[in-house]
Design brief:
Elements lengths: L17 H25 L8 H14 L1 H7 L8 H4 L6 H34 L3 H10 L8 H25 L1 H8 L10 H29 L5 H32 L2 H9 L4 H21 L4 H32 L20 H21 L23
Helix pairs in contact: 1-2, 1-3, 1-7, 1-9, 1-13, 2-5, 2-14, 5-6, 5-7, 8-9, 9-10, 9-13, 10-11, 10-12, 10-13, 12-13
Length: 391
């Protein structure tokens, strides 16, 4: 055709790139880790030893959740305006309010969980800079009586409930995609539920990985009962997410409507992430199922492989959800090819730096707030035997 009138299809491009894939991925991990923390606080007391570690692991992800959005914004220096001029009809403004609620809740939890430790470290720490920081973090509160610690514990329960609600509200992005009708891939009521379950599985897998790493770093014995409990949650969360994804696809194939045409059109473009999601999920389910039958180092290796597989599979699912839905032209007459660039704010290198940011921050947070008790020599101050988690 030598000339064309009007639009030539496909008539759009991929506006949401790899950074917007990372944003719901971080939100998923936060939701899952906070849920595991809430389970340890309200239900499974066997997970109490992990509470500090989960907080230390979750806090960097909460701080990093803004990075993909800020890098994607055309004017990131104006992002603070969503806080000073709130607009409840704006999805981004609502995110800012919910995000601040989550941030302040986890900051409050960290302070109350570590309050007794701050008092102890402010008087025993030999590093003058850290000692000063701990002294400031005590906020002048040195009451370590049982009654004060019991009050701390009650406040922690309230903050945990607020944090859990805020974390689940952060998953509103899944519901946002679920109600968008402009693309058949998003036009499904199953998508939000599948998104949440996938996030719960990813967060639980991250808790398992961090538990193995921190235990090795601090020379702590790995409690296989804790591993089995969390692995059980991750197994059923992942099974639910995978089953819902398959049911959704099978339903489209059976109906053979326009949504199935969309999936078939993009099947070649998304062959790799689809294969990663399916193979990774099945591999993780298999390893999690049979890890309960072994013990020792073999159990830890199987759980570690399964956890990494879950994280990779969930990332592939997020890629399909964000990128895949944009590959199909609005007219359904063609599709757009997408390959992320290597450089630039939407490039692969920028994405890798954003993905690494939580772990860099985690090392810094761990330096000042170790999740396990440090070995110190006896001084004139005797460390309180009652902690917040024991109250």
């Amino acid at each position: 055709m030598s000339e064309a009138f009007g639009y030539v299809y496909p008539n759009h491009e991929v506006f949401w790139g790899i950074l917007i894939v990372i944003y719901p991925y971080f939100v998923s991990i936060i939701t899952g880790m906070v849920t595991i923390y809430a389970i340890s606080e309200f239900w499974r007391k066997e997970l109490k030893p992990l509470e500090k570690m989960i907080l230390v692991g979750t806090f960097p992800f909460v701080l990093s959740a803004l990075l993909p959005l800020l890098l994607d914004l055309g004017q990131p220096q104006r992002a603070f305006e969503i806080y000073v001029t709130p607009n409840f009809s704006s999805v981004m403004a609502v995110f800012g309010i919910v995000y601040l609620t989550e941030l302040f809740a986890i900051l409050g939890e960290l302070w109350f969980v570590y309050r007794v430790d701050f008092i102890w470290w402010s008087q025993t720490e030999r590093n003058p800079i850290k000692k000063l920081i701990y002294k400031i973090l005590t906020l002048g509160v040195y009451d370590i009586s049982r009654k004060a610690i019991e009050v701390d514990h009650k406040i922690i329960k309230v903050l945990t409930f607020v944090e859990l609600i805020a974390a689940w509200c952060l998953s509103y992005v899944s519901f946002l995609f679920g109600v968008v009708k402009s693309n058949p891939w998003w036009n499904t009521t199953i998508l939000p539920v599948s998104f949440v379950f996938g996030g719960l599985a990813a967060g639980g897998a991250m808790v398992l990985i961090l538990y193995l790493i921190f235990s090795s770093h601090y020379g702590k014995r790995v409690d296989e009962k804790i591993i089995d409990i969390i692995s059980n949650y991750v197994f059923f969360f992942l099974l639910a997410a995978f089953a819902l994804e398959m049911i959704n696809t099978i339903l489209y194939a059976y109906k053979e409507d326009v949504a199935w045409a969309v999936i078939r059109i993009t099947s070649t473009e998304l062959a790799v992430p689809m294969a990663i999601a399916v193979i990774g999920s099945l591999e993780a389910l298999l390893f999690l199922r049979y890890s309960r039958m072994v013990s020792g180092a073999l159990k830890q290796i199987m759980v570690g492989i399964a956890s990494v597989s879950v994280l990779i599979a969930v990332f592939a699912l997020r890629w399909n959800m964000v990128i895949g839905a944009q590959l199909v032209d609005y007219s359904l007459r063609g599709y757009v090819s997408y390959t992320p660039p290597l450089f630039g704010k939407e490039g692969v290198l920028a994405a890798l730096l954003v993905l690494a940011a939580p772990f860099v921050l985690m090392a810094i947070v761990n330096y000042f707030l170790p999740p396990y008790e440090k070995e110190v020599k006896e001084t004139e101050i005797s460390r309180p035997t009652t902690s917040v988690s024991e109250a």
